[in-house]
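Consider the following assembly input.
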Amino acid sequence: MPKDTSAPATGIGAATKRREDIRFLTGRGRYTDDINLRGQAHAHFLRSDVAHGRIRSIDTAAAEAMPGVIKVFTAADFASAGGLPCGWQVTDRFGQPMQEPKHPILADGKVRHVGDPIACVVAETLDQARDAADAIVVDIEDLPAVIDMKAALAEGAPKVHDELTSNLCYDWGFVEENKAAVEQAFRDAAHVVSLDLVNNRLVANPMEPRVAVGDYDFATDMHTLYTTSQNPHVIRLLMGAFVLGIPEHRLRVVAPDVGGGFGSKIYHYAEEAFCTAAAKALRRPVKWTSTRSEAFISDAHGRDHLTRIELALDADHMFTALRTETYANMGAYLSTFAPCIPTWLHGTLMAGNYRTPLIYVNVKAVFTNTVPVDAYRGAGRPEATFQIERLVDKAARELGADPVELRRKNFITEFPYQTPVAVVYDTGNYHATMDKLLEISDRAGFEARAMESQARGKLRGFGIAHYIEACGIAPSNLVGQLGARAGLYESATVRVNATGGIVVMTGSHSHGQGHETTFAQVVADMIGIDAGQVEIVHGDTANTPMGMGTYGSRSLAVGGSALVKAAGKVIAKAKKIAAHLLEAAEGDIELKDGTFSVAGTDRTVDWGAVCLAAYVPHNYPLADLEPGLEETAFYDPANFTFPSGAYACEVEVDPETGAVEILAFSAADDFGNIVNPMIVEGQVQGGLAQGIGQALMEHCVYDETGQLLTGSYMDYAMPRAEDLPLFRVDHSCITPCTHNPLGVKGCGEAGAIGSPPAVVNAVLDALNRGGHAVSHIDMPLSPARVWAAINA
Amino acid sequence: MQSFDFVRPSSVAEAVAALGAEDAQPLSGGQTLLPSMKQRLAAPAVLVSLSGIAEMQGLRREGDSLVIGGATTHATVARAARTDFPALAELAGNIGDPAVRNRGTIGGSLANNDPSACYPAAALATGATIVTDRRQIAADDFFQGLFTTALEEGEIVTAVRLPIPQRANYQKFIQPASRFALVGVFVASYAGGVRVAVTGASGDGVFRWTEAEAALSDRFAADAVTGLTVEAEGMIGDLHGTPAYRANLVRVLTGRAVAAAG
Amino acid sequence: MTKVTLTVNGKAVSREVEQRTLLVQLLRDDPASGGLGLTGTHVGCDTSQCGACTVHVDGMAVKSCTMLAVEAEGAAVTTIEGMANADGSLSPLQQAFQDHHGLQCGFCTPGMVMTAAALLAENPTPSESAVRYYLEGNICRCTGYHGIVKAIMAASGQDMPAMAAE
């Protein structure tokens, strides 16, 4: 069935509409909370309302006697289970492994943050479970809580984990060997610019709260967990091998439609292990659905760094050295990938887009009595970018240089480029993205617009930032040396059916990214058939090859490459079959628009006939070739991909109230080749909204006793439609990635990485133009903070 | 939420009788009460719905006043008060969001007296009369601090009578998460003088800014309040704004309300 | 338990519910446990902020997580499952969401569509700022609202000047 060339293009580069939209728009998506198994019971967790305390006793007798209650679980029920594992071991400056505390499913002996689960009631209905939880009597001896990171490291500070020597998880130096040379460069510098800053603690807040449904089949000894996960295979591996001792062939993990993740659904959570174990213990399915309030005290948080950064420049304003000291909050326990975020996903990005020859990064990771902190959209890279791009802007102001020209002067221009922080940028063209940015943001017209604002009593500002990102963390043998306890490849199976239709089983997971559409575009394009003939299956360990899931902007670069590799194997085999059918040499067979032909002749056989021959091998080279047409590939990248871009934000500040309005936001990104421009733009727009949210609104705040002050949408502010403009997004600057077959780079996190410094730089530009000499304001730049800075 | 009994009377008299039960509480639009019950911060034994009481619905003009039934939704006020009292219509159209405005009611808002709610500012600035099942209460006597009013146990706000000002405007500066008022200022100008009521700012709830009232009664112009100072002491300080910031907003928003009132 | 009778997506239904049952629970719960199994309406928060649960009650947008099922006695409720054309194809508003990439993860989408439909019923040709204003009670974490605003404008038959500049 040759492709209908009159139909709209569906291959690589086409802005194909998303097929998954149909079910979401008609209310027929299938999210985890939509799953109700026969005989299902409901779980409700009793969570700690104090940040730190010793559990003296838990009396569940009254609760167990309540109507509908099946069982009340406590830590004693999980004595034989392992703790929730950490997937990355960081080695400190002195060659020692990080301190790694145990993380029980239910609090054992101590509670360490507000929200730490103490007990779980399983009842016939959710209301009954909640009613009974109120009847559990817990006697907790309050202990002093440590919330502030520097206080947590002070001599004699209360310890979050009694068995550790201190609250310091690790003290990491990178590159330790550069430290002396960096210090010398600062002594030799013509100018030194420094900045103390906060990367504000955030909560990812995908709109779908987490859900877990555990099921167990006694007849087959098979466990099934339905869960809101970005990586079901990783959950199966971690939970099966480390927590519950279930071999993988007895455990199936399904992540159906997932309503956003942004990192928070990467990790293995206690509730997943609980529901899986409880289903077996109670011989019936057990379901837990998080409320939003519960999500705030149980989903891993993001960011939360305190940093001092310094830049050395020579007399010509060339950067000569950079050094930083960062305190990174780990929270009360190590979430699955927490230790690598402030280290390998942060320190390695500290060169930014600049030819700074010497860099030293120090990171102290600290335990506190707060919810665990892990990756959130960008993960380490927004923290790096924010530091660099704020500092470069500050340098420009202090030196009287144009912020664009200071950046341009120091841009890396030759690729591949070996940074002093271990990574090699394969491609990029930072002048091109900056040029494009200045064009689409109309920087030239800014002064006139600023005058117009001034006439209305408002302060207008223009801020820019340039970013570099590292996506698709790899290769596995390298990350293994860096402490990863997992591989970072991806997988795909391409199964061709007898009549030519294709099912692709991918190890990537879509929770908004649109893989069902874009992955089909890739395969269809390679074969030359309509994308409608390709179906994408993901999210179920029972029918997809072992894959690492979706995070870190890796799906197309890594998962897509696995897909290309598997489809390539299929095409190679199909060509052999076609050669047989056409009685020609394999090397002479060409595939175009779904038709195989013998080069230089008019002899052809179409895709469908070849597929049929593979499964009905009557006329088939059985001696040389197996029947069937199905291939699996695993792809382990040679390097990260390095998308980059230039962002500009234009704001208006109301000096009387401190209110900041975003008038325009422009993004010029280099994502390499583009498979579906509509989806790429959507990813950028969504990232921008979250980055603008971080810059202006979002802040997760604890009081000094460890109570969460922003525990609901009444106090944790996220952008609404009114808070944002239409975005100007451009991705026409293309330097293809040199080491993956599609030449693609990640695009999912860019918006959240590049935008916070652009927003803050814009607000500071507005204030300084208005005669207010303000050098820095910590995020979020709430009206109150901006007003206070103006009136300081 | 915890379980409760539910009754839906069709008259005020029946509602009052039903509210005589132990731990009974009226349910109007439920936009505050139901979330509180979900969080188990409130657990009434009996909920008496006011949504089926026809006599508590709607708006009517009575001389120089607008009388609004206690169970009238914000959306209805936003639509129906547009001609008679545009500043009030605008205030109502800015409460919460469209779905909240379709359920939330003026009586519920006044009875709850959330320190950041909008309606208390309008009621206080207009010198409104709160009509209950048993008496009439002047707004100046009605609001008695955070979530506290002159209402007795089981007493229902059946209507509100708001004298229509010659000029009025409400300025709301939103708290970015809840979308309640971080500070809201209602300025109402009458033949007899100007009244200014402030919500969101004070630790004691809605209040009248009498210095501004005096200045504006003397001269109704935005710059009449520029020179006044608002004491930060007693203002709410939280993660959305310090007392000093709120005090500043009170002054700025009052000036803007005056300018917008024309 | 109380019996509640209402119309959902044009169909008369009657169920025994607890007094504390929220409208969204009645809609979403499994038929085996007394619900209607209409899982298109979602719950994204517990403070009546996010709007994922928005449905129409007697033609008005309402947050079904902040309304008791017993309060819907006699009401006509429309959910996302009732928004497609009679033949099951996407309505023009739904189609506009697909055309303009107005959704990613899809979780907030039912509420967005219900709110947008209520807006267009009130105001058939809203300005961009009117659209943004009306969406105040619906949070999307994926799209930055860009595609949503475009979709609603397009569904109202309007071009946006800014769209041409992209």
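The CA atoms of residues 440 and 666 of chain A lie 7 Å apart. Ask yourself how this observation constrains the way the partners meet.
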